[in-house]
Prior knowledge:
This protein is of the alpha+beta class. The protein has helices at residues 2-43, 89-92, 227-240, 259-264, 283-287, 306-312, and strands at 47-55, 69-78, 84-87, 97-101, 107-116, 121-126, 147-152, 160-174, 180-187, 199-201, 207-214, 222-226, 246-247, 250-256, 271-278, 294-298, 301-302, 322-328, 331-337, 340-341.
Amino acid sequence: MLSFLSTEGSSASSRELSRRVDDQDDILLDAYSQTVTGVAERVSPAVVHLNVRKPVPQNRRQQRQPGGRDSGSGSGFIISSDGFIVTNSHVVNGATSIEASLPDGRLFKAEVVGDDPATDIAVVKIDGNNLASMAFGESDRLRVGQIAIAIGNPYGFQYSLTAGVVSALGRTLRSQSGRLIDDVIQTDAALNPGNSGGPLVDSFGNVIGVNTAVILPAQGICFAVASNLAKFVVGKLILEGRVRRGYIGIAAQTVPLPPKWTQTLELPTSGGIQIQSVEDGGPASIAGLEAGDIIVQFDGRPVDSIDVLHKTLDETTIGKSATLWVLRNGGLKNVSVTPGELR
């Protein structure tokens, strides 16, 4: 009898524990849902649909009337109340006309302010006031596994949202201009044609990336230009209309350095950028840099991330010899390199 009562009590406890676990799962799922819907409500007024017309490529004109135009679409997001919009370079490059459609139904003619094919970032402007806008977050604080929400206008449909996670950081992606974009975010938040140029946001609604590409026919492999790089490029485009920059011809990613290296070699930083590949005939190749090398300093300035290198390689570095500190095979090496101008 005592044994029977003990078994009954154990079963009841198990059922109670299972119920509590189920309740906790429901609470967590509801919290996730509330987060996503909250972000959608906050940022959706600042996401725009771009309808773009471009000249028909020469090899297709025979199929159309002379002077014909190609039409396409993409997404963008407003970053200032007076109408500056961030999108992809490949969406607006070569456009003869751009029309921006806001979620409230208003239509605006948009003009290209600046275009940077090297990072697939562009800025267009509409003549508006008191517009809803979005803010850039800090992509260097991202962690693999955190929530990532993509917003855009796939296939021309007005406003769609997909949610996923940050799948990987520090990817390298070749832009449509043929250049390599460093420090790209990989996400499984679904992107489709028309999502290009839309924002990738975190759980607070901050822009952590600019959606730029999806790998087909693979599923769940999508990419966004990291917000820190995008923010730097956008600032240059708004002020100067272009980004004139030096380049050394590498693809690289940010890596942490083992503490024993920083202490033993007395390095100026706890991180560096590891070269993944070297462009044939480029400045880095001529200087003797190799895949696997880790750059920790550029002409006396610590380089602990891709963002720092991009900002360091400004127009003042073009054609001027610079000394790099490079880690190779556990030792520190000085390498002289002369940056060229990125075209």
